[in-house]
Design goal:
heterodimer, A: 11 strands, globular, B: mainly beta, six-stranded mixed β-sheet, five-stranded antiparallel β-sheet, 11 strands, 57% strand
Chain lengths: 114, 112
């Protein structure tokens, strides 16, 4: 079982560059999420999606964009990268039925903006 | 004030000791409570999931929820060096669309 797969694992960007963080899941989960994790700050929600074609902002959406054209894929786009976007990014998915439990996370993308 | 507070640690214990972790929260609408374990340079993995108040036990792990005090706990019995990780609490409200609010995590070190 692949679960949630994120690529790339590491990336260094220059200020002003753009990139897309890829996320795909094979569990047929409707809900998908993007979080960023900064040291000692826990996980902060960037964007989330409750199904294909539906996305919404989380707590810290500025500087990011998402799309959800299929159930499996939920890419995160960074436009005009800034040093403040240096972080570890996690994609996660969950079933719509809350009683089934929590999230399944990917292994993360470690991004440095210089 | 953060919505979910968690002591960052580190919490260092000898092998075999009981590890006691906790989180406090301010949002009385939270109904679902979870604990995640995160090893260094890995994604979080779900350890325990509890709905509303009460206790839940799974092997060496016990989760407790006290909604009247807005306080949740995780106990790890007979701790092992492999339990060394960061532990994150997370919670959500029924109306939150399954969105989780996370604590900042507590780093735990179990020494052989």
């Amino acid at each position: 079982n692949a679960g949630v797969t994120q690529t790339p694992k590491f990336r260094i960007l220059k200020i002003g560059q753009s990139m897309t963080l890829q996320c795909t899941q094979d569990m047929n989960h409707n809900y998908m999420y993007w979080y960023r994790q900064d040291p000692g700050m826990g996980l902060k929600l960037i964007y989330y999606s409750v199904g294909a074609g539906i996305t919404d902002k989380g707590e810290v959406p500025n500087g990011y964009n998402v799309s959800r054209s299929t159930t499996e894929d939920f890419p995160l786009r960074l436009e005009l990268a800034a040093p403040s976007q240096t972080s570890v990014y996690f994609c996660a998915s969950s079933q719509q039925d809350r009683g089934s439990g929590g999230y399944t996370f990917g292994s993360g993308t470690r991004l440095t903006v210089v | 004030q953060k919505e979910v507070e968690q002591d960052p640690g580190p919490l260092s214990v000898p092998e075999g000791a009981i590890v006691s972790l906790n989180c406090t929260y301010s949002n009385s609408a939270f109904q679902y409570f979870m604990w995640y374990r995160q090893y260094s340079r890995k994604g979080p993995e779900l350890l325990m999931y509890t709905y509303s108040s009460g206790n839940k036990e799974d092997g060496r792990f016990t989760a407790q929820v006290d909604k009247s005090s807005k306080y949740i706990s995780l106990f790890i019995r007979d701790s092992q060096p492999s339990d060394s990780a960061t532990y994150l609490c997370a919670m959500s409200a029924i109306a939150a669309g399954n969105k989780l609010t996370f604590g900042g995590g507590t780093r735990v070190l179990v020494k052989p």
